[in-house]
């Protein structure tokens, strides 16, 4: 979910040169800008480039791809289009705290700043650092996103929103299950016997879409 630029703030956005390009020219710019960031034996996939194009056009985008496709590379490619001096921020929601650890290392390897936000490390100091856009990539669980009052204050702060360029929901297929739980329709579902569905479900997960859209500009 890319963030639109507000007319009332100094919202971080792509350059006018990029925004003024037609699709073929923008695809070429995306390819040339990001190709040098990855090893030659790991070439960019056309679907990755197409997805970044959609994000650059401020389209809400879904990616359905198998393990090994390189989905985690897509927000990296998008962030590479922004000037590092503008401190762009990508927020990535994971179903579990532990899933962010490896991805933080990947982002550090790409010379981004990153943090895996957990209940144990989310302090007032970290909250202030997020407001200053210290971290390009912020990984956090849905529990923190929806139920942590301090993070809610940070997320809705205009300073944070000015730097937020993209919000990613990892394992988005699980939102369907969370929504069913919120609506009390999931008691008979066999799906919750799978190992990835054994975590505690919180009723507010059914409100995820509303929370994500709360700061979207028209």
TrEMBL record:
The keyword Isomerase applies. Its EC number is 5.6.2.4. InterPro entries: DEAD/DEAH_box_helicase_dom, P-loop_NTPase. GO terms for molecular function: 3'-5' DNA helicase activity; ATP binding; DNA binding; four-way junction helicase activity. One of its GO terms (biological process) is double-strand break repair via homologous recombination. It comes from the Eukaryota. One of its GO terms (cellular component) is chromosome. It catalyses: Couples ATP hydrolysis with the unwinding of duplex DNA by translocating in the 3'-5' direction. It is an enzyme of class 5 (isomerase). Residues 46-182 form the DEAD/DEAH-box helicase domain. Keywords: DNA-binding, Isomerase. Belongs to the helicase family. RecQ subfamily. This is DNA 3'-5' helicase. It comes from Puccinia striiformis f. sp. tritici PST-78.
């Amino acid at each position: 979910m890319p963030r639109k630029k507000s007319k009332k703030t100094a919202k971080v956005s792509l350059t006018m040169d990029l925004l003024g390009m037609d699709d073929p020219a923008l695809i070429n710019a995306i390819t040339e800008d990001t190709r040098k960031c990855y090893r030659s034996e790991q070439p960019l996939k056309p679907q990755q480039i197409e997805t970044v194009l959609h994000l650059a056009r401020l389209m809400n985008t879904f990616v359905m791809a198998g393990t090994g496709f390189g989905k985690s590379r897509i927000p990296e490619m998008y962030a590479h289009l922004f000037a590092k001096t503008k401190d762009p921020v990508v927020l990535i929601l994971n179903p579990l705290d532990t899933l962010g650890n490896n991805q933080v290392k990947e982002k550090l390897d790409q010379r981004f700043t990153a943090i895996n936000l957990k209940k144990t490390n989310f302090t007032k100091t970290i909250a202030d650092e997020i407001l200053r856009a210290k971290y390009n990539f912020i990984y956090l669980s849905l529990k923190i996103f929806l139920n942590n009052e301090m993070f809610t204050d940070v997320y809705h702060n205009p300073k944070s929103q000015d730097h937020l360029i993209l919000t990613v929901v990892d394992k988005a297929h699980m939102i369907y299950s969370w929504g069913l739980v919120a609506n009390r329709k999931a008691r008979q579902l066999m799906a919750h016997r799978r190992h990835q569905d054994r975590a505690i479900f919180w009723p507010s997960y059914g409100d995820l879409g509303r929370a994500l859209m709360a700061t979207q500009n028209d």
